[in-house]
C-alpha cells in the first residue's frame, strides 16, 4: 500500500508544517508533488496525473488528529488507531 508515503509524512511532519500547514498534500514515494486547499482538488488533480494507488493525500496539520481515529465505547475509554 502506501506505507512508504505515510512513513515519509510522519518522519517529516515538522518540516512540512511551515510549508503546507492546513493544505492537502500529495505524496509519491518520498516527495510532495502537490498541495491543495481541499481534498477534492487534490484527488481529481492527482487522478489526472498519476495512477490510482501510487499517491497518498494527507492533510498537513500539527499533531496526529488528521490521521488518527478514536473510538469510544462503554468497555474501554478510548481505542486509538492510525488510519
Mean pLDDT: 89
Poorly predicted residue ranges: none
Shape estimate:
globular
Strand residue percentage: 25-35%
Going across the biggest sheet, name each strand in turn: 2-1-3
Order of helices and strands: HEEHEEE
Q: How helical, in percent, are the residues? A: 25-40%
Multimer state: single chain
Total helical segments? 2
Biggest beta-sheet profile? 3 strands, antiparallel
Distance between the termini: 13 Å
Protein name: DUF5678 domain-containing protein
Domain DUF5678: 15-52
Pfam family, one: DUF5678
Organism: Xylanibacter brevis
Description of the structure:
This is DUF5678 domain-containing protein. The structure is a single chain. The chain has one domain. A hairpin with a 2-residue loop joins strand 1 and strand 2. The relative contact order is 0.20. The strands form 2 sheets. The chain has a 3-stranded antiparallel beta sheet, with helices on both faces. It has a two-stranded antiparallel sheet with strand order 4-5. The two termini are 13 Å apart. It is α+β, with helices and mostly antiparallel strands and 83 residues long.
Amino acid at each position: 500500500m502506501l506505507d512508504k508515503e505515510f512513513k515519509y509524512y510522519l518522519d517529516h511532519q515538522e518540516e512540512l508544517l511551515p510549508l503546507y500547514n492546513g493544505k492537502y498534500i500529495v505524496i509519491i514515494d518520498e516527495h510532495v508533488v502537490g498541495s491543495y486547499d481541499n481534498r477534492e482538488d487534490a484527488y481529481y488533480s492527482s487522478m489526472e496525473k498519476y495512477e490510482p494507488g501510487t499517491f497518498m493525500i494527507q492533510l498537513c496539520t500539527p499533531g496526529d488528529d488528521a490521521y488518527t481515529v478514536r473510538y469510544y465505547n462503554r468497555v474501554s475509554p478510548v481505542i486509538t488507531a492510525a488510519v
